[in-house]
Specification:
alpha/beta; 273 residues; single chain; Oxidized Rhodanese, domain 1; 14% strand; 2 domains; 31% helix; 5-stranded parallel sheet; 10 helices; 12 strands
């Protein structure tokens, strides 16, 4: 599947030696150094948690991205393809972050290394020069706590909880408070991934999200714990044809640790309250 957000293994083979192709391996460092796609640069986004979506927090996030993408040698003129072992949350977070930073050609390799099974993996790291990447934030694809609080209960904004069932039902609490953002629709983010590790087709995703009650006419805001699984949901929703999607960067690590934000406590059917 190819789209404005992802490319497949066939596309990669056809463009493998393009001068303006940059591959970013988002797996942990030990996996990268054990073997990666030839010419790939390494960036594991997982250690870079950012859960403050105040005005100051978003400015700091932008500065962090500018530093990261400069260190990765990104110019803004190349096609940047993020990958991991399959179509996972790390690669999705990299793609979303670079898109948010204003890069027009940020993509994820659908299926990751599993889909590129014929590729010879390299252990050596090729040299590249850092750049002075300038961020041009796309505020319309990022949600803050203030944006969500302002739109709670308004039908034109639908909040999409993509955490595990255990997190959603407060059986696993990973913040000061358990619960969910009021009015959230819920489905585990992995429901968007096919058995072979690729993202499900656009028609499958449209049917899946439609069955949940998510309306393409509305703005959809996915959230998880730290904005990584939600970045994957952002990609899946865009592939499904939802035009207005924002990743709630702070997610439950922000919302669930604040005392001044409302929460609800969903219960499983048949559960004793």
């Amino acid at each position: 599947m190819n789209s404005e957000k992802i490319v497949d293994a066939k596309w990669l083979r056809e463009h493998r030696d393009d001068a303006e192709l940059t591959l970013i391996d988002t797996r942990p460092a030990k996996d990268f150094h054990a073997g990666h796609l030839r010419g790939a640069r390494h960036f594991d986004p997982f250690p870079f948690h950012h859960t403050d979506t105040s005005e100051r927090g978003i400015a700091e996030f932008g500065a962090q991205l500018q530093w990261i993408f400069s260190a990765l040698g990104i110019t803004g003129r190349e096609t940047v393809v993020f990958y991991e072992n399959e179509s996972g949350m790390r690669a999705a977070r990299g793609q979303w972050a670079l898109e948010y930073a204003g890069h027009p050609w940020a993509r994820m390799l659908d299926g990751g290394l599993k889909s590129a099974a014929g590729e010879m993996l390299a252990a050596g790291v090729e040299k590249f020069a850092p750049t002075d990447f300038q961020i041009n934030p796309r505020a319309e694809i990022l949600a803050t706590y203030a944006h969500l609080r302002e739109h709670l209960g308004r039908p034109e904004v639908q909040i999409f909880d993509v955490r595990s069932d255990e997190e959603y039902f407060s059986e696993r609490v990973r913040a000061k408070h358990g619960g969910a953002i009021p009015g959230s629709y819920h489905q585990d983010w992995t429901a968007a991934i096919a058995a072979d590790g690729t993202v499900k087709s656009s028609s499958e995703l449209r049917a899946q999200f439609g069955a949940l009650g998510l309306d393409p006419a509305n703005e959809i805001v996915p959230y998880c714990q730290g904005g990584y699984r939600a970045a994957h949901a952002y990609l899946a929703l865009k592939i499904a044809g939802y035009p207005k999607v924002r990743n709630y960067l702070g997610s439950w690590a922000e919302w669930g640790n604040r005392d001044d934000l409302p929460r609800e406590h969903p219960r499983r059917k048949g559960a004793v309250s």
